[in-house]
Amino acid sequence: MSIQYDAQRIVHPYYLSFRRLNGGKVLLTNAAGGNIVVSGEIFDRFIHGGLPFDEMPVGLSEQGFVSETADRNIYRKEILNRYFEGWKSPHVHIISLSAVCRLSCVYCCASASPVDRRRMNKETADRILDFIFSLDPERYLIEFQGGEPLVTFPLLKYIVLKAKKKAIGKKKQVFFSVVTNLWECDEEKFRFLTENNVTVCASLDGPRFVHDRNRPCSSAATGAELVNAGPHERASAWLKRFADYAARNNTEAPNAICTVTKHSLPYAREIVDEFLSCGLKRVQLGPVDPLGRAAAAWNTIGVSSDEFLDFYGRAVNYMLELNSRGIPVYEKAALAFAKQLHGTVRPRYQNLDILYRLAYNWDGGIYGSDEARMLSNSGDETFRLGSVYSDTFRKIIRRPLAIRLVASALTELRQPMCSRCPSSLYCRVPPVYNYITQHSIAGNMAVNERCRLYRSVYELLSSMNSDPCKYEIFRKWSEMYD
After folding, report:
1. Which one of 61, 82, 103 terminates a domain?
2. Distance (Å, rounded) from C-alpha 228 to C-alpha 405?
3. Is 39 domain-assigned?
4. Alpha carbons 271 and 265: distance in angstroms, whole number
5. Which pLDDT belongs to residue 350?
6. What is the mean pLDDT of the segment spanning 368-381?
7. For all residues of the chain together, what is the average pLDDT?
8. Is 334 helix (H, G, I), strand (E, B) or coil?
9. Domain that residue 66 falls in
10. Which of 114-129 are b and which e, b meaning 16 or more Cβ less than 10 Å from the residue's Cβ?
11. Is the previous residue joined to 365 through a cis bond, with omega within 30 degrees of 0?
12. Which of these three, 82, 109, 142, is where a domain ends?
């Protein structure tokens, strides 16, 4: 649209997308990451050419929505950054050490079991490390998954120590994390993980009556172990140990993930309180995925987008209430959005399949995401990209599946709804989810439940951010936390 400058100093809109929110306010975003919520009256005057400079909200210009003041160079830079300018290679590498786990979680996406014989050997570990360090990102992040990765602790230890040597040889940094239920943790493992700065990310679904219902012990666990401590008691005890160590030694604090099932929905406050009781400031809330064991139990544990949104809203509002009382706590997704809202971090697909992350199964199979790797454990190899025994990254990235996965990230160029959606900068529905629920890697966002969920969460957070008190808390989050 060609816009003529008005001598009466009426401002005109630059490229934008918008959605009207509950309460009459309007959310505006643009391709460079700008974001603002304005009143319906201001928006209508602005969009129809009736808003003078002296009545314009300051943020409208600062966020790049005003044609007369928009900096085209910044727009260009941000858009190129979004479309992978400067990309080198994947830096997140997720290694699944086995399909073995002593718990029997009702929603296990990895289809793990205590009697599973699928375990990685040293030869495969060496091949994976050779593959990872054949790439040249600015830094490496290696994350251990499973099953339960602490079941194969000697191999985890071997990989950490060898990866450190390889990183030194390349004069690069390497960071480690382990996603664990902490059932197998003991003093030896605690010492190794803390001394080698392996960040612990544990499963914590809330108080004992929620956690142990979602994550019971397998029937294969011995009676003695059940007597000693249940899943919740062990997880919370070790989380407190790791949190205390981090506080005393100024190292990275442990993280925890709450997978929200139907059992979780009434207990938003109690779940937040449980994180705090374990010494954690960061709360991570995510809906259960219809993958693996969860798919079979979906009617009893699955949550709809509306149910999760209600739960999430209550949880975040409670955290904001706690902050107003001087108790520091924040939610991971809300923090990421707050950083984008307040301009300290622009949207970028940090965990994009293939370009930013790769996953490796116990047998050396290569996948674009951990969800794809977990799907393979249930026998579906649709997303298998190759193997560390026979492939290089150059070969993988040129294959049709890899190209389709990369293209699936550019939804605003491929999906009519996404092209005008104000939330498209901040969300990307995983291809595996689309495949499971809609039998298509691209998916159909018009009727996609996860799209609806993400869109609703972003609109909720935008509405919260328009409240002056909540705005100030979000701003502090964006400054205080990484």
Report:
1. 82
2. 46
3. yes
4. 10
5. 55
6. 92
7. 89
8. helix
9. 1-82
10. bebebbbeeebbebbb
11. no
12. 82
